[in-house]
Design a protein that fits this description.
The complex is a heterodimer of chains A (978) and B (137).
Chain A (H helix, E strand, L loop, with lengths): L1 H4 L5 H12 L3 H20 L6 H16 L8 H8 L4 H14 L7 H12 L4 H14 L2 H7 L2 H7 L5 H17 L8 H7 L7 H14 L10 H13 L10 E2 L2 E2 L1 H11 L8 H19 L7 H21 L3 H15 L4 H14 L6 H5 L2 H10 L3 H14 L5 H14 L2 H17 L4 H15 L5 H13 L4 H12 L6 H14 L11 H12 L4 H17 L4 H9 L1 H4 L4 H16 L2 H7 L12 H10 L6 H5 L5 H5 L14 H6 L18 H13 L7 H7 L9 H5 L20 H7 L6 E5 L3 E10 L2 E10 L5 E9 L4 H4 E5 L11 E10 L8 E8 L2 E8 L8 E3 L4 H10 L6 E7 L6 H11 L2 E2 L10 E8 L4 E11 L4 E8 L2 H12 L3
Chain B lengths: L1 E8 L4 E6 L5 H16 L8 E4 L2 E8 L2 E8 L4 H19 L3 H6 L4 H14 L4 H8 L3
């Protein structure tokens, strides 16, 4: 028993300990302890005064009993007495007992503090150290208040011994960490910095720890430490492994001090002094060089100590982020470690690389390791390492590798540890959104997430996909189709039902044309999941059902049956019951118009920071526990789960088909609750007809066009014969078109319906239909205010030669528009010959006495009079050759402004009016179209070819028509659409 | 900064704990249970580092005893491993191969630990500097 037999004996203690060790049972141990406690108590209470040795022995026994897990309620006084002993061992046991057993509110504290004070003043270095250790170990506020002022003095006193300085520095550090306000800053702070120059390495090490902590609060006070730290570091780094003797650890000179110095330097920006900086860079290079040298020992301690310095050096290089050369070298070094057989090194390399990836200098270098990292994700046995690999993939992701990384992370998710699934889900969701080249890929990714790890898909994630689908009209049809397919899986996650329910409720109409996803099929698919879902999901589905009644009147009877069922109307859950009752009544009482207004598609969500990103940040932060509660506050939640509030004055959006059939009856758009930018509301909603359908039916466009038959009995000609003359005011009355008129016009090149204009006062919606060279346009003027507009007069003006090219007849509208009301204006349009500029629409009225006027471009462009022409490849090429005169061709090469999605492009070309010809162009990526522009005077044949280049994100558009200006004009119009 | 050090056996029995942050006893017990369970369930050939809440656990097994330090994220993991190793070397030096003593004195070691705290913090534990502290008996 070396430990026990060492020192000055205390045989009684040794006997007691070995008695305890020999106890066979817990009971025997307790019995022995109680006997000993009684013995000690009687000794302490006895009349005979105990000598120091006995006191020490009994206090030691008490300590031992305490450490065995028994309460000690006496002996404190004896311990305090030991503090004033002059014998080191007695004093030491006294301090030991106090550090372990005396709590700060003890009445003895005054006596203890007094003893400490004496020892601090004793000039005996061993006693001073004991006192300092005690202060540090207790570390209470009371101790701090008593001694915080003395310790700095001891620390910087010229005559303090090295070991005392070291202990004083650490003690001060401890007190500062416990209660920073107690440690007074002052003249000593400057002198602390000079401890970095101390001969004694222990003092330097302790001082660096202290300065690193203090300088975080007052960096300027300690700024001079930079050059001292650099020169110290430089001396250590360049020293031979034997130079520092005691401070060499497994052949590595002073690893602890080196790492601490490197940490201290990370509290500051790169040194301004060029000489200091040069010396530091030299140090960093030396460390990097040493990493390549063969190891001096095979022991793991050697490599650990050496690499500890290396990793800290790399941290500093990353912190400076200003030396491209060093950053790339660091990256290469870490790349070597990625394949190292030591798991610890692979872990640390992945971790460091993660920060390296965010530097612009090394991002590309990090990316070259993508395959190794993906491999780590797949093959590492250690979840911590896999987690680091996933983090690194997230950090190195950019547009160029997003698809690869996202698909790897998705694959990993299937087998990922439960603890990190939610984080991976968030990361995939963020990457998919951030780097989505086309939104159908985004939708696919999120739905895959739900399929693979539905339980870990938080509300933020699926809210976000709904926000994006709602705001991006080009993806709505695709989303509807995809969720519909996903829902067909026999077992699908409830989150999928939520997303599916919401999307079909909003955009189910976009896939209703396909008999496989006809409205009754959609409904029964959703309803088959209904009974298995939670209350929140069922509530959402009920909202979907009522939206179906509006979207698909044919499902009304079935849905009303469902709502009427006792299980809904008398549901125990009050929310479900209320929804069932209200929706049932709404569907039976309200007229189609009212339904269409109330159950209108949700308006686009305002752009905001991704709530998922916020969540990930929170997750990473310390308060991860409250993340879920916070999530509930997601602003979109009420839109989804709060039910369809009948009062919410959303904009009327019947599905395109329903809307076109009941064109007259459809109520004109009401003002949305909050004006959104450029009033994309109706635009989004209406346009998705052509934009989203192509993927479904063979010739959806035809079906769509056939529905465009004017619903009214009178033929277009009859309408044109309408005697109401266009009230053309003199052109001098018309102001110039508003600056954004061209942009607004562009939106309507490939679509016929939407919001033409919106500001705080007025919203102008458009619905139009064109056949051959005739067209009819409905303009809806909505008064968004509560005040009546007076002298309201919208007029159409033909600037320049347009009069001879295009005939537009308008009907007058009422000159008063009540607050919140809307008026409709019908325009009959005839294209006489080809034209280049659109007519202008001038709207003038008085609002609250102030005259308002507004000039827009009417969305009538030459392509509206396109008639699609189907033709075989042979015919196409023959005609293409016939139009080979240089002036007949117009070509434009331009950069893509929108994601390059083939389906969207197709939809746009169809919306533009031409037919799309398959199997004509040898390259299937290219689009070829043909059509004839119909005017009264002549017909213009038109051929077009669009060649997308996904790599360069460019398009080349070529148009050939028989008329030169038409070629150019069409080319310009179309080019702006991609 | 080291937040706490735990020593426990392969059977999950806690041998020593040292806390450098103030936490209620109940919380300490909960944390200890959680960490012991995490580390014991780790497979072979895993790394010595575990992300745990906002801290990082650095652990190593010596014979049947696990040493685990909880450090902050920016702390140097490899060097923390060496702090543990240095500590083990010290224990070894003072208690030798007397494993009976080792185990039985384990709880006593918290005393020792409280004395070596400044040494751990200063980073370069030096045997000579600590010698007087270790001659307890």
């Amino acid at each position: 028993m070396p430990a026990v037999s060492k020192g000055d004996g205390m045989r009684g203690l040794a006997v007691f300990i070995s008695d305890i060790r020999n106890c066979k049972s817990k009971e025997a141990e307790i019995k022995r302890i109680n006997k000993e406690l009684a013995n000690i108590r009687s000794k302490f209470k006895g009349d005979k005064a105990l000598d120091g040795y006995s006191k020490k022995k009994y206090v030691c026994k008490l300590l031992f009993i305490f450490l065995l897990g028994h309460d000690i309620d006496f002996g404190h006084m004896e311990a305090v007495n030991l503090l004033s002993s002059n014998k080191y061992t007695e004093k030491q046991i006294g301090y030991l007992f106090i550090s372990v057993l005396v709590n700060s509110n003890s009445e003895l504290i005054r006596l203890i503090n007094n003893a400490i004070k004496n020892d601090l003043a004793s000039r005996n270095p061993t006693f001073m150290c004991l006192a300092l250790h005690c202060i540090a170990n207790v570390g209470s506020r009371e101790m701090g208040e008593a001694f915080a002022a003395d310790i700095p003095r001891i620390l910087v006193a010229g005559d303090s011994m090295d070991s005392v300085k070291q202990s004083a520095a650490l003690c001060l550090l401890r007190l500062y960490k416990a209660s920073p306000d107690l440690v007074p800053m002052g003249e000593w702070t400057a002198r602390v910095v000079h401890l970095l120059n101390d001969q004694h390495m222990g003092v330097v090490t302790a001082a660096v720890s202290l300065i690193t902590c203090l300088c975080k609060k007052n960096p300027d006070d300690f700024k001079t430490c930079i050059s001292l730290a650099v020169s110290r570091l430089s001396r250590i780094v360049s020293s031979a492994s034997t130079d520092l003797q005691d401070y060499t650890y497994y052949f590595v000179p002073a690893p602890w001090l080196s790492v601490k110095l490197l940490r201290l330097l990370q509290c500051y920006p790169p040194p301004e002094d060029a000489a200091v900086k040069g010396r530091l860079v030299e140090c960093l290079e030396t460390v990097l060089n040493k990493a390549q040298e063969p190891p001096k020992s095979k022991k793991v301690q050697h490599s650990n100590a050496k690499n500890a310095i290396l990793f800290e050096t790399i941290s500093l290089i990353i912190h400076y982020d200003s030396e491209p050369n060093l950053l790339v070298r660091a990256c290469n070094q870490l790349g070597q470690f990625l394949q190292h057989r030591e798991t610890n090194l692979r872990y640390l390399a992945l971790e460091s690389m993660c920060t390296l990836a965010s530097s612009e200098f090394s991002h590309e270098a990090v990316k070259t390791h993508i395959d190794t990292v993906i491999n780590a994700l797949k093959t590492e046995r250690d979840v911590s390492v896999r987690q680091r690999a996933a983090d690194l993939l997230y950090a190195m992701c950019d547009r160029s590798n997003a698809k690869q990384i996202v698909s790897e992370m998705l694959r990993y998710l299937e087998t990922a540890d439960y603890a990190i699934r939610e984080e991976i889900v968030l990361k995939v969701a963020i990457l998919a959104e951030k780097y989505a080249v086309d939104y159908s890929w985004y939708v696919d990714t999120i739905l895959n997430l739900i399929r693979i790890a539905g339980d870990y898909v938080s509300e933020e994630v699926w809210y976000r996909v709904l926000q994006i689908v709602t705001n991006r009209d080009d993806v709505q049809g695709y989303a509807a189709k995809t969720v519909f397919e996903a829902l067909q899986a026999p077992a699908c996650h409830e989150n999928m039902v939520k997303v599916g329910g919401y999307i079909l409720g909003e955009f189910g109409n976009l896939i209703a044309g396909d008999p496989r996803s006809s409205p009754p099929v959609q409904f029964s698919l959703l309803h088959s999941k209904f009974h298995l879902c939670s209350v929140a999901t069922r509530a959402l589905l009920l909202s979907t059902y009522i939206k179906f009644i509006n979207l698909f009147p044919e499902t009304k009877a079935t849905i009303q049956g469902v709502l009427r069922a006792g299980s809904q109307l008398r549901n125990a859950d009050v929310e479900l019951q209320q929804r069932a009752v209200e929706y049932l009544t709404l569907s039976s009482v309200a007229s189609t118009d009212v339904l269409a207004t109330v159950l209108e598609e949700m308006p686009p969500f305002p752009e905001r920071e991704s709530s998922i990103l916020a969540k990930l940040k929170r997750k990473k932060g310390p308060g991860a526990g409250s993340a879920l509660e916070d999530g509930r506050r997601d602003p979109s939640s009420h839109d989804i789960n709060g039910g369809v509030e009948p009062t919410a004055s959303t904009v009327s959006t019947p599905s395109p088909s329903a809307d076109l059939l009941g064109l007259r009856a459809a109520p004109p758009p009401a003002a949305p609750p909050a004006p959104t930018g450029a009033g994309s509301l109706l635009v989004d909603v209406f346009s998705d007809g052509p934009a989203a359908q192509p993927s479904l039916g063979p010739t959806p466009e035809e079906a769509f066009l056939s529905e465009l038959e004017p619903p009214a009995p009178e033929s277009p000609m009859a309408l044109l014969a309408d005697p109401a003359p266009a009230a053309d005011p003199g052109p001098e009355d018309i102001g110039p078109p508003i600056p954004e008129a061209d942009e607004l016009l562009n939106k309507f090149v490939c679509r016929n319906n939407g919001v033409l204009f919106e500001n705080q006062l007025l919203q102008i919606g458009v619905k139009s239909e064109f056949r051959q060279n005739l067209g009819r346009m409905y303009l809806f003027y909505g008064n968004k205010t509560s005040v009546q507009f007076q002298n309201f007069s919208p007029t159409v003006v033909h600037p320049g030669d347009l009069q001879t090219q295009l005939a537009v007849q308008t009907k007058r509208v009422a000159s008063q528009v009540d607050g919140g009301a809307q008026v409709q204006q019908v325009l009959n349009i005839e294209c006489l010959r080809d034209f280049l500029t659109p007519p202008l629409l001038s709207v003038r009225f008085r609002y609250g006495g102030a005259p308002q006027s507004l000039t827009l471009k009417l969305p009538v462009t030459i392509n509206k009079f396109f008639q699609p022409t189907e033709m075989a490849a042979q015919d196409f090429f023959q005609r293409w050759k016939q139009l080979s005169l240089p002036q007949q061709e117009a070509q434009k090469i331009f950069k893509a402004n929108h994601p390059m999605d083939a389906e969207v492009t197709k939809a746009k070309l169809l919306g533009f009016g031409s037919a799309l010809l398959d199997n004509v162009d040898p390259n299937p990526e290219n689009f070829v179209g043909a059509g004839i522009i119909q005017t009264k005077a002549l017909q213009v044949g038109c051929l077009l070819r669009l060649e997308p280049n996904a790599q360069a994100q460019m398009y080349r558009l070529t148009l050939r028509t028989s008329k030169e200006p038409v070629s150019r004009h069409l080319c310009e119009l179309l080019a702006q659409q991609f | 900064m080291i937040h706490f050090i735990l020593l426990f056996s392969r059977q999950g029995k806690l041998r020593l704990q040292k806390w450098y942050t103030t936490l209620p006893d109940k919380e300490r017990k909960k944390i200890t249970r959680e960490i012991v369970q995490i580390i014991l369930s780790r497979g072979q050939r895993t790394s010595s580092f575990i992300d745990w809440k906002e801290l990082k656990l650095v652990y190593k097994r010596y014979a049947s005893l696990y040493f685990c330090c909880a450090v902050e994220n920016q702390d140097n993991e490899l060097l923390t491993l060496e702090v543990v190793h240095r500590y083990v070397e010290l224990l070894d030096k003072y208690f030798g191969n007397d494993f009976g003593c080792w185990f039985h004195l384990m709880r006593f070691l918290s005393v020792l630990d409280s004395w070596s705290t400044p040494a751990l913090n200063s980073g370069v534990p030096r045997l000579t500097a600590l010698t007087p502290d270790f001659c307890l008996f």
